[in-house]
Amino acid sequence: MRLQNKILILFSLLFTGGFLFLMFFSANAVERTNSNMVDSFSTQSFEFKSQEVGQWLGQRLTELRVIAMNSALEEGMIQEAVSYIGRLNENLGTQYGNEWGTFAVGYKDGIGWVSPERYIDISEREYFHEAMKGEREYVLSAPVISRTDQAEISLICYPLRNRDGKVYGFLNAAISLKKLHDIVAELDFYNGQSWIMDPKGNIYTRSGADEKAVETLLPHLSKEEKGFLDMENGAATVFYTRIPYTEQWYLCTSIENSRLMEDTRQLKWKLSMVLLIVMILLFLCSVLVARSVTNPIGRLTEAMKRVETGDWQVSLQMKGQDEIARLSRSFDQMVRRVHSLVLRTAENEREKRNAELRVLQAQINPHFLYNTLDTLQYKAYDTEDEEMVTMISALSTFFRISLSRGREIIPLEKELEHVKSYLKIQKIRFQDVLAYEFQVEVREPLPVLKLILQPLVENAIQHGIKPKMAPGAIYIRVTQQEGTRQEGAGGGKNERRLVIEVEDDGVGIETKRLEELKKELREGTTGKSYGLINVNNRIRLLYGEGAGVTVRSQAGKGTCVRVVLTELPQENEEELYG
After folding, report:
1. What is the pLDDT of residue 552?
2. Could you tell me if 103 and 67 are in contact, meaning their C-beta atoms sit under 8 angstroms apart?
3. Is residue 420 part of a domain?
4. In the chain, which end has fewer C-beta atoms inside a 10 angstrom radius, N or C?
5. Domain for residue 513, yes or no?
6. Do 196 and 53 meet the contact criterion of CB atoms below 8 Å apart?
7. Residue 546 belongs to some domain of the structure
8. What is the CATH number of the domain that holds 560?
């Protein structure tokens, strides 16, 4: 099947998924609509009940206004009105749930009379002081205990004013909280719990208040007239609405969401079951289609990763006529061509280096050079100049190993002898300033790429010891290690590694320059350290990515250059040591 047809099938499944999503969205829309309807209906019900409570409170307030119109009170004669208040309490007290007195009248000192024989002292009550400021028509108190019968009540404190509008006394009307509780108890809505409270957390009914609901409501009551809130745990919804004629009293009800949204939950459950069944079928179909598309792509991706690690023995050989199969066949052809090109490029590079070396060797006639150095050495013997003899001998050895008959691979001992010859010459040049030490822990003869140590030693002298302006030392350590190299998706391959370290106690390398040098080594770009980069590039070209040069250094303490050679090449012993 062509990839185009597979994509068409996949899109068809996506369209089906979109349709199912639309069904799910519709179910949620139904839930939200039903929820809004329930919330609106609930709010209206609470407003109606709050109006009932407000009318009852309004009736008490109207009675206070009528009492305040008494002629004695209008003249400011409170004592003459005490008998009038006593008679009212006898006639009306029982009706409002307080048989010992419903009203009280008094001066600004807080002493009020329920009857000529009974009085109360509210001078320390907060609501009394608020009413005596004269800024409001009346003040409602928080729940208190009646001084006459120890019942739970709230009080309306009504300031009395003279003809000049100044407050000279007060009227109190007791509100039985039992009456409020009875009114609230009549509210039966989804078996919810109802109560009356204010923004300070005062509860005006004896039962029904949920502590968590009260905590949830407190930040909102002083800001909003009505509304509803979800509890933090999502188990219930709290409805609230302000009661008229009060100073921010609210009628509140907490209803469990399980009861509030019972019908909606049933509808949502049915739609969810249908959606679940369809989604399972859609998932199974998607898996089958996805596998048919992604498996070939996965094989192609894995093959590319193997090529990245240097494994050129890759062949997908996919069958079919779709785009991925054709792409895999093109990939196989490309890998073969690139592999051939890489081999050809490496061969050309080796030929180029050999040609350059042959040109250099042609410019320097080895026999002429050696004969000239031997003649100079004999002359030095005749003059008994031992230092000159040592320098000429070391220089002769240095050039002989450098040329090595044009070979690039030489024995390890020859490479070390080459470096020793160079150090002998430098030792004579710098006298007591330079010291060096060799630590070679390799006993078997090993072939190595020639001319890789001398540039490193030269760098150590020129950039480490010489700027130090004091005696310095160079340490050359050679060890052989066994290791394992990972190859593609297969297992590892055992290999020998030759590790050579050239360390000096010179001036070291500043941090910024060290980072630049490490970057040049990683990228193979030639910067200020041409010799070091050239050695690293030659090693990596011959030995592969696992080999190369690394540097660690600390300013003022010295530098260590580490050379790792892997996959040591096997040279013909006769050619190597002949």
Report:
1. 93
2. yes
3. no
4. C
5. yes
6. yes
7. yes
8. 3.30.565.10
User: How many other C-beta atoms can be found within 10 angstroms of the C-beta atom of residue 451?
Assistant: 18
Which of the listed residues 139, 174, 209 is the one where a domain comes to its end? Answer: 174
Integer-rounded Cα Rg, in Å, for the chain is 51
CA torsion 204-207-210-211 (nearest 10°) is 70
At residue 564, the pLDDT reads 92
In a domain, 183, yes or no: no
* pLDDT of 510: 92
Place of tokens 């039903």: 34
Instruction: Give, as one character, the DSSP assignment of residue 136.
Output: S
Cβ-contact 318, 329 below 8 angstroms: yes
Per the CB < 8 A criterion, the answer to whether 30 and 261 are in contact is no
- Distance between CA atoms of 300 and 325, rounded to whole angstroms? 10
For residues 56 and 177, what is the distance between their CA atoms, to the nearest angstrom? 12
Count of helices and strands (H, E) across the chain: 16, 18
DSSP characters for 77-105? -HHHHHHHHHHHHHHHTGGGT-TT-SEEE
Running along the chain, 578 residues long, what does each successive block of 10 average in pLDDT? 56 64 66 62 69 79 85 82 83 57 84 85 88 87 74 85 87 80 73 80 74 80 76 76 79 78 70 70 66 70 74 71 72 78 78 59 52 63 69 70 70 88 83 87 83 89 88 92 60 74 93 90 74 85 84 92 78 47
Neighbours of 420 (CB within 10 A): 19
Could you tell me if 395 and 373 are in contact, meaning their C-beta atoms sit under 8 angstroms apart?
Answer: yes
> How many domains does the chain contain in total?
2
CA distances from 76 to 69, 109, 115, 169, 203 (A): 11, 14, 18, 8, 36
* Full residue range of the structural domain in which residue 523 is found: 437-485+492-577
User: What pTM, to 2 d.p., does this model score?
Assistant: 0.40
Taking the CB of residue 264, how many other CB atoms lie within 10 A of it? 19
Question: Scanning the structure block, which residue is given the tokens 């080594």?
Answer: 521
CA atoms lying within 13 Å on the CB side of residue 232:
7
